[in-house]
Specification:
- This protein has 696 residues and is of the alpha/beta class.
- It is 64% helix and 8% strand.
- The radius of gyration is 29 Å and the shape is elongated.
Length: 696
């Protein structure tokens, strides 16, 4: 390899071993995320420079195997086969090395120029686990480096070993996994034939094992990448059939071959780990076990989960008020300067209204209302993830989703929906089953996203807590908002069960859920990454939709037909139906015009009630409460508004995400109809019951 030619290094590892921490520490911000062609699972790529040499690091999806039983495994396997990697780094968790070595052994079968990175040595030391890196290197036949990536330890040595492995003339001779004699005989019979076809592009021994297994996804990939399809090569097909016949004669059913191969891999991993690991049992009770007794116990887990959710919401509500007011003041100050600029230029009034009072004003409102809560909620959410709590949420909710014949991973995508439903829909890629992935996408909008929080919080505060504010009022608002969210979660279970029994029938699949150790969150890194990766990304997408929506809203409020504006015509037309479900025409119109971004529902309602022609803000919640009461709002209107805000059509960005991920207009339409139907039905039932009981 030429000096200074960029070297591609694949970074592989099980989930929760600190692989992404290693990747981030080595690449810094010089990274981006992309998809392997034809796949929906993302891979992150980043560059780093070490001793004058450039490296491209590819952070492959976390996976337990390369046997392609899931999209993540297929992406990782295909990159090792066809991605052009010059070498690999396999990141292992020092606290559970035996399980991690299973993947390392599979990588060594494909890529001999590999360095094994034993990460989390600091955690292993705290748990009384000592890993003899020299013994492990001797056993595996490749360099082994110990790191504590979260503290930045061992990374320079890791890059030194990568450089050493990539520059040495002869590649290392890694440990060979020995399979039962009949399998070894079958592989030996195929290897020479395959070697002539592959010409060094892939290890013939590894391909022989996959052909004996009958891995169709690999055969498709070989055909696409190498232009050679073993299924069309009669000589190879005959040799494979003969080798399988030899296995049968030796008493080995080809259908059981995969379990035989896995057993051999696990046995080799066990022997290697036992030789290198010295685990000392500590007499005191482990900290993780003590925490798990509270956070995962059947009696305390759910109350603790609800309390944590309420705490996050309270911090978000209390912390967002002041910065939101400052941001609003600054952005609307800019609006005044734009107005002065348009006046100085002599621009027509309609142009000023459309661009400044329409596009900019809506955009400023969305940013001032949406940015502060997201800047608080996303880091708090990420801290819980970094601490190791979110996988335990999936563990707690797995049984409920199994009852609904859905996948327990849906709990994680549902949690992502609290920040942004569109992000939650994209996160459904982690669910392997297409049926269960669709269920998760269709029901993700049943939990309120960050954009619906302003409406929910405002209505709860004005009508059920009191608009005077204060610490106690904020706590009450957080608890009531938590109750609303729990209602959304319960609806998610019921609708998932309904879909599983009707249009998406099937049996729930099983999956491996690893509960990582509790870790001290890296607060600074979490805040920076959550703001850059989540907050700014979601805000940018919302702003791109809100700007043109502002123009449409301004036109509706200012273009007249007859003696009324388009907005007045629409509200009058919708009013009879809206009152049937406990709302009014203005509220329902505000939800419809708020389709691009849920944050502007309340401002649109204020604009319609005041007939101002532009989105308005009021002097505090007290003034807003007075305005709403003057326009006929009661406690019933507030309850129905809460229900309809929780259960109504997803916003435009979520619909676009569902359309992209499902690839079907049918499923996108169903994603709109489902929550809307639930919302209309609940509002109608509540309104009818209140009227019959004489409460409204």
């Amino acid at each position: 390899m030429e000096l200074n030619q960029e070297r591609v290094v694949a970074l592989a590892g099980n989930p929760n071993v600190g692989k992404s921490t290693v990747f981030n520490a080595l690449t810094g911000l010089h990274q981006h995320t992309g998809n392997w062609p034809g796949k929906t699972v993302g891979t992150a790529q980043g560059r780093c420079r070490h001793r004058g040499q450039d490296y491209m690091l590819v952070d492959l999806p976390g996976t337990y195997s390369l046997m392609a039983r899931s999209p993540e495994e297929e992406v990782a396997r295909d990159f090792f086969c066809f991605g052009g990697a010059h070498g690999a780094v396999v990141v292992c968790d020092a606290t559970c090395l035996e399980r991690n070595l299973n993947l390392a052994l599979q990588v060594l079968e494909l890529q001999s120029r590999t360095v094994v990175c034993v990460n989390l040595l600091d955690e292993a030391e705290r748990k009384g686990i000592r890993v003899d890196l020299n013994v492990l290197s001797e056993k595996l036949g490749v360099p082994v480096v110990g790191t504590s990536a979260g503290r930045g330890r061992g990374l320079e040595e890791l890059l030194d070993k990568v450089e050493e492995v990539l520059t040495q003339k002869d590649p290392p001779k890694p440990l060979t996994v020995h399979y039962p004699p009949p399998v070894e005989f079958a592989v030996a019979s195929l290897t020479p034939l395959l070697g002539r076809r592959l010409k060094g592009r892939l290890p013939a021994r590894w391909v022989a094992l996959r052909l004996l297994e009958g891995d169709d996804s690999l055969l498709d990939a070989l055909s696409a990448a190498l232009g050679w399809d073993p299924r069309q090569d009669m000589e190879v097909q005959e040799a494979v059939e003969e080798a399988r016949a030899d296995l049968v004669r030796a008493g080995l059913d080809p259908a059981e071959l995969n379990s035989v191969l896995v057993s051999a891999l696990l046995g080799t991993a066990r022997e290697t780990a036992q030789a290198a690991v010295d685990a000392q049992k500590r007499p005191e009770e482990d900290r993780d076990r003590r925490l798990d007794r509270i956070l995962t116990h059947r009696r305390t887990a759910v109350p603790m989960m609800i309390l944590l959710l309420a705490g996050v919401l309270w911090l978000t509500i209390q912390g967002a008020n002041y910065p939101s007011a400052l941001l609003s003041e600054g952005l609307f100050w800019i609006q005044d300067r734009l107005t002065e600029l348009f006046a100085w230029l002599g621009a027509p009034e309609w142009l000023h209204g459309a661009l400044v009072l329409g596009v900019y004003r809506v955009l400023a409102w969305v940013i001032s209302v949406m940015l502060p809560p997201m800047a608080i909620f996303f880091p708090l959410f990420t801290l819980l993830e970094d601490f190791g709590y979110l996988p335990r949420v999936a563990f707690l909710l797995d049984h409920a989703f199994q009852k609904a014949k859905a996948c327990g991973k849906q709990a994680l995508t549902m949690c992502m929906g609290f920040g942004c439903n569109a992000a939650g829909v994209v996160g459904c890629r982690i669910i392997d089953s297409p049926r269960e992935r669709l269920i998760a996408m269709l029901t993700n909008s049943f939990v309120p996203c960050n954009g619906r929080f302003p409406t929910l919080i405002a209505v709860i505060t004005m009508f059920f807590v009191g608009a005077e504010g204060g610490l106690w009022a904020g706590l009450q608002a957080a608890l009531l908002l938590t109750g609303v969210i729990v209602l959304g979660v319960l609806a998610t279970f019921q609708v998932s069960r309904l879909l599983s029994a009707t249009v998406l029938k099937g049996v729930p699949s099983s999956f491996t859920l690893e509960l990582p150790p509790y870790r001290r969150p890296r607060v600074g890194q979490v805040i920076v990454r959550s703001i850059l990766d989540r907050t700014i990304f979601v805000l940018g997408r919302a702003a791109a939709v809100a700007a043109p929506a502002g123009l449409v809203i301004w036109l509706c409020a200012n273009v007249t037909v007859g003696d009324m504006t388009i907005l007045d015509h629409v509200t009058g037309f919708l009013d009879p139906f809206a009152r049937l479900i406990g709302l009014d025409g203005v509220i329902l119109t505000a939800f419809i015009l708020g389709f691009p971004a849920n944050e502007i529902v309340i401002p649109i309602a204020i604009m319609a009630y005041l007939s101002t022609g532009t989105i308005q803000e009021t002097e505090g919640l007290g003034a807003l409460h007075q305005l709403l009461v003057q326009n006929g709002w009661t406690w019933l209107t507030a309850v129905c508004t809460l229900l309809f805000s929780l259960f109504h059509w997803p916003c435009s960005t979520t619909c676009l995400s569902i359309a992209k991920e499902s690839g079907s207009v049918k499923w996108t339409a169903l994603a709109v109809v489902l929550p809307t139907g639930v919302g209309v039905l609940l509002c109608f039932c509540v309104a009818t019951a209140a009227r019959l009981l004489g409460l409204a």
